[in-house]
Design a protein that fits this description.
Blueprint lengths: L2 H26 L1 H5 L11 E6 L2 E6 L6 H6 L19 E6 L9 H7 L7 E3 L9 E4 L17
Parallel strand pairs: 1-5
Antiparallel strand pairs: 1-2, 3-4, 3-5
Bound molecules: FE2/S2 (inorganic) cluster.
Length: 152
């Protein structure tokens, strides 16, 4: 091996070692281990979901809808049905972070009634912008029965 190629080979080896150790340090830093960021530089909200005896914790995109994420297999554990606020299969109870989501809309009030006051929400109607913890454990809320015109 010529002198020149040995110098070049050593340079590449040192460069590779420096680069990989720099990347490892960067990856292991608190910034990259604990917090993921959106393209806009905002912190991605963390969702903690209690479902079927398990706890699922994932970071989601800013203003994400969990039913949409479940539909594209990013949140496969989530229970849901229609995705339109009609079936109540996605009902959850907000454990933490409820102040960060919009107040219940008319569909949630219609389908959940007084349960809304107890922190129950329709997951398909939520837009997640901050950390939130929700549970779908032991929830059996049925949609209200439709009244026929003769029953009124
Ligand atoms: S998925 Fe049907 S009400 Fe939310």
């Amino acid at each position: 091996m010529s002198n020149c190629s040995m110098v070049y080979s050593n340079f590449l080896k040192n460069y590779k070692n420096f680069f990989s150790s720099h990347l490892k340090r960067l990856y292991n830093s608190e910034k990259y281990q604990n917090v993921a960021h959106t393209e806009r530089g905002n912190v991605m909200p963390k969702v903690i979901l209690h479902v079927d005896g398990t706890v699922v914790e994932q970071q989601v995109k800013d203003n994400a809808n969990l039913v949409v994420l479940a539909g594209i297999r990013q949140f496969p554990q989530l229970k849901y049905g229609c995705g339109m606020g009609r079936c109540t299969k996605c009902t959850c109870r907000v454990i933490r972070g409820g102040e960060s989501i919009a107040p219940p809309n008319w569909k949630e009030i219609k389908m959940l009634g007084d349960k809304v006051e107890e922190g129950y929400r329709l997951t398909c109607q939520l837009t997640i912008a901050q950390d939130i913890e929700i549970s779908q454990e032991n929830i059996s809320i049925q949609p209200p029965k439709k009244q026929s015109a003769t029953q009124v």
